[in-house]
Amino acid sequence: MKLERLYSRYSEIIPDFREFMNSIQRPLMQSFRVNTLKAKREETLLLLKDLKIKPLPFYDDGFCVQGKSKLGNHITHNLGLIYVQEAASMIPGIVLDPRPGEVVLDLCAAPGSKTTHIAQVMKNTGLLVANEINRKRIQGLMHNIKRCGVLNEAVVGFRGQRIDRALSDYFDRILIDAPCSAEGTIRKSKAVLYHWGLKNIQRMARIQKGLLVSGFRALRPGGTLVYSTCTIAPEENEGVVSYLLEKFPEAELMPISIPHFKIRTGTLKWQGESFDSRVKNCARIVPQDNDTAPFFIAKITKRGVYRNRVDYMGKIEFEGTAVGLLARRFGIHAEQLKGYSIFHDRGASYITTPQVYSFREARALRKGLELGKVYGNEIKPDNDFVQIFAKRVNKNFYDMKEWEAKKFLKGESIRVSSHSNMSEGFVIVMYKNLPIAIGRYNGREIKSEIKRERRTL
After folding, report:
1. 368-to-142, 215, 365 alpha-carbon distances in Å
2. In whole angstroms, what is the distance from residue 142 CA to residue 145 CA?
3. Of 108, 148, 180, 230, which residue is the catalytic one?
4. Is 282 one of the annotated active-site residues of the chain?
5. Which end of the chain is more exposed for a tag (fewer CB within 10 A), N or C?
């Protein structure tokens, strides 16, 4: 199918349609988000000096790359210090505006770009429920959650249309980045040309209505729900939101404003159908306005009386063996881990928030971040754990030069002379004052313990 034929149906709702068509045929700029869960923005930017980058005007942690650098192969990507994410894809998380300590749901979480963004804004506190029904996609979601050092998450596998049955009136904020016909992805891939069709749009709209209704029922009164898609079709956007407004009188659509980012209002009429007049508060993002992919966003709140959530009052685990070994080997003391829950599961120790540990309303496929594995009287900390908690390590660490770090991150061993700060066993590798990985020291060299899938090329 030709581009013109696919998008011509939208000429009536995009006044500058010719400019739109020119824009969607240009390649997307490369953009990324600095992951402040692992390092300060300034620390990560120092590692990006080899690239030509400039800040995104609407988001302090967002940047774009000038040129053809492959961000996926960059050291900062492998270490989870950045997340490669399309600029418009950052907007739903910004509009959701989650707060530290809240209870938040990402209903359609895979592959994790928005989940990790939400965790970042929440500062790894509270409870973030990441839901994904597709088992294959769950693996990618878990990989990205771990790579970014997220520890406030509980991954669940509900059918999205039924999550309200277990968690009614439960969440302070909910993001539904719904599966859609994906017309907005055309600047990244031409795949949409081969599966696009009106029947698919109608099928997706039915799925989206079920997801939005279930999500709204799971939202507590006074809470905020953000519904987003990367499609242009009003059937999947204003039509779905209008359906919710008609079904639930307590639903209220909030206006959206993003400084330094241009948005357009929602469409009130489409092919003879009139939508609820309030959908003008929805946000439409078109490529010619900000040089991004197209996107649609609605911000919804629920009127009503808030009922206190029933919290689990059981014992919060703080597994002492792992903590003691961390202190003895590296000088990472219990005081640094105060306020977290540390527990044993599937042969390893994990760290998470008390809210995540006490989450019992649904079976979680994963909770928190792996802290490490205990082998007798020795502990092997997890790479992502040390990036967050080993910044003040005072023994059994090694500061690498740039050439050493590059070799080490490829999985190669580094020869070192005898070192007064290190004894044989697991050591923490530092680079530019940042803990980056775990190695094993044998008195002559440090062997890389980085998993094969996380090594640089």
Report:
1. 10, 23, 10
2. 5
3. 230
4. no
5. C
Query: Alpha helix (H) ranges present in 47-162?
Result: 75-78, 91-96, 113-121, 135-147
List, as one string, the DSSP characters of 178-238.
-----GGGGGT-TTHHHH--HHHHHHHHHHHHHHHHHHHHHEEEEEEEEEEES---GGGTH
Preceding omega of 381 cis (within 30 degrees of 0): no
pLDDT tens by residue, 119-168: 999 999 999 999 999 989 999 999 999 999 999 999 999 999 999 999 99
Phi/psi-derived region of residue 289, left when phi > 0, alpha when psi is between -120 and 50, beta in every other case: alpha
* Distance, CA of 455 to CA of 453 (rounded, Å): 6
Contact 446, 439 (CB under 8 A): yes
Q: How many C-beta atoms surround the C-beta of residue 392 within 10 A?
A: 11
The contacts of residue 65 (CB under 8 Å, 6+ apart) are 29, 30, 31, 32, 51, 52, 53, 71
pLDDT of residue 313: 63
Dihedral over Cα of 404, 407, 410, 413: its sign: negative
User: At what angle are helices 113-121 and 135-147 packed, to 10 degrees?
Assistant: 40
Q: Measured in whole angstroms, how far is the alpha carbon of residue 238 from the centre of its chain?
A: 25
Question: d(Cα 381, Cα 437) in Å, to the nearest integer?
Answer: 9
Amino acid at position 250, single letter:
E
φ and ψ at 224, to 5 degrees?
-120, 130
In the three-class reduction of DSSP (H, G, I as helix; E, B as strand; rest coil), residue 316 is classed as coil
* Residue 4, token pair as written in the block: 């013109």
CA distance 196 to 182: 9
pLDDT tens per residue across span 167-186? 999 999 999 999 999 888 88
